[in-house]
Write a structure and sequence with these properties.
This protein has 403 residues and is α/β, with parallel strands linked by helices. Helix content is 46%, strand content 13%.
């Protein structure tokens, strides 16, 4: 039975949502009707870590599941090998099947911290789009392509920019929105939820649903976590901020504390279960001169509690207070075993503490890597480990290297 509680539905329709197509009113009418809708969120397995930016869509999906709707999580294992060109000023690197499978190893565990998955109590279902795309032949692909025009594809901003800069646009990049659109047809969904940067791709699915199944599909475009200073996505490798859903709890707490003050309210809205009324009180307190640190402490605790439980949330908070207010080294930090004389860059890369060797080099040159006990900075990008050491990386991250 579907819950039609008007207050819960209103929060779903307003929280973290930028646009609903064809209209918010039409979608609201469907939710209030008591009809059980089939709704999905998809994500391409282009990396092994999901982050709190991904969590926004899954939180909306879980709220709808709790109302009694059928929800589906699509892991884009086939589309990940193609690569979504959205927002890219150059071609995405294509991934191998082996790389995608490696990325997917822990995804179910990460998502299950937000969405209840399984064949009980209306649990979410997980599917992979390789199960249908791997069976398609070229005639099927041509059939899909016949429903769209070259003009529709080329008019997209990122392709226009590449044309102006005389950068190549590859034909396979035009296939991506067709493929994402076809996911909707195969799953026969009523609703797709995705970031507002995915609106074009989601509308392709709406077009195909009308053609193939003669039915409407609602497109729910969600807000993106944006750094207001740069205008870029907040969870961004180039911005140096990735708060992973499977991050160690002290590390997660510290990363939230390192977020820009201007992002506090948007992260509360998009990444926590704190009520909108309570968030509004926090907003007003900040506008009246309250210390952002206190609001951020609450935010960090809320996020850690979601992914690690209330006890770890309390521990992370106390550990942070003891560590950074007293200038100490935290307990329970990540510990990495290493071989003697192995380059530090390789150790941290292997432990996924840095994204790449160039990322490590940048941190070293910025003076952001040091011995946490002595305070001595590591200045050589080729530094090799010859003893046990506790490192401080950036302002709030610690890792213990053990030989």
């Amino acid at each position: 039975m579907v819950n039609t509680d008007s207050e819960k539905i209103e929060e779903i329709l307003t929280r973290s949502i930028q646009t609903i197509l064809p209209s918010k009113d039409a979608f609201k009418k469907e939710l209030l009707s008591g009809k059980r809708l089939r709704i999905y969120v998809g994500a391409d397995a282009t990396g092994s870590k999901l982050h709190i930016g991904h969590a926004t869509n899954f939180m909306i999906l879980e709220r709808l599941r709790q109302l009694g709707h059928e929800v589906i999580i699509l892991f884009g294992d086939f589309t990940a090998m193609i690569g979504d060109p959205t927002g890219k000023d150059k071609e995405r690197r294509t991934l191998t099947k082996k790389e995608v499978e490696s990325n997917l190893k822990t995804w179910k565990n990460q998502v299950s911290k937000i969405v209840k998955i399984g064949n009980f109590n209306n649990g979410a279902k997980i599917v992979r789009n390789s199960s249908w795309f791997s069976k398609m032949n070229f005639a099927d692909v041509v059939g899909l392509a016949s429903h769209f025009t070259l003009q529709q594809m080329v008019e997209r901003d990122m392709f226009q920019k590449r044309l102006e800069e005389k950068k190549p646009i590859f034909l396979h990049e035009f296939f991506y929105p067709l493929m994402q659109g076809y996911d909707s047809v195969v799953l026969d969904v009523d609703v797709e939820i995705g970031g507002n940067d995915q609106t074009f791709n989601m509308l392709a699915g709406r077009t195909l649903q009308k053609i193939k199944r003669n039915k409407e599909k609602f497109v729910v475009a969600t807000t993106l976590l944006i750094n207001p200073k740069t205008g870029k996505k907040l969870m961004n490798k180039s911005e140096g901020i990735i708060i992973g859903l499977d991050d160690e709890y002290n590390d997660m707490f510290g990363k939230v504390m390192a977020l820009p003050d201007e992002t506090i309210i948007s992260v509360f809205i998009d990444c926590t279960y704190v009520s909108l009324n309570e968030i509004e009180k926090i907003r007003k307190a900040l506008e009246s001169g309250a210390n952002p640190r206190d609001a951020k402490m609450r935010l960090a605790k809320e996020i850690v509690t979601i992914y690690h439980g209330e006890e770890k949330g309390e521990k992370a908070e106390q550990n942070f207070i003891e560590t950074f207010k007293k200038g100490g080294v935290p307990e329970g930090m990540q510990e990495v075993k290493a071989e003697n004389e192995k380059p530090l860059s390789e150790i941290l890369l292997g432990a996924k503490i840095v994204e790449s060797k160039s990322d490590f080099r940048r941190l070293v040159l910025e003076g952001a890597v040091s011995d946490a006990v002595s305070g001595e900075k590591i200045t050589d990008p080729n530094y090799k480990i010859s003893k046990n050491i506790t490192l401080k990386i950036g302002k709030k991250r610690f890792v213990k290297i053990v030989l």
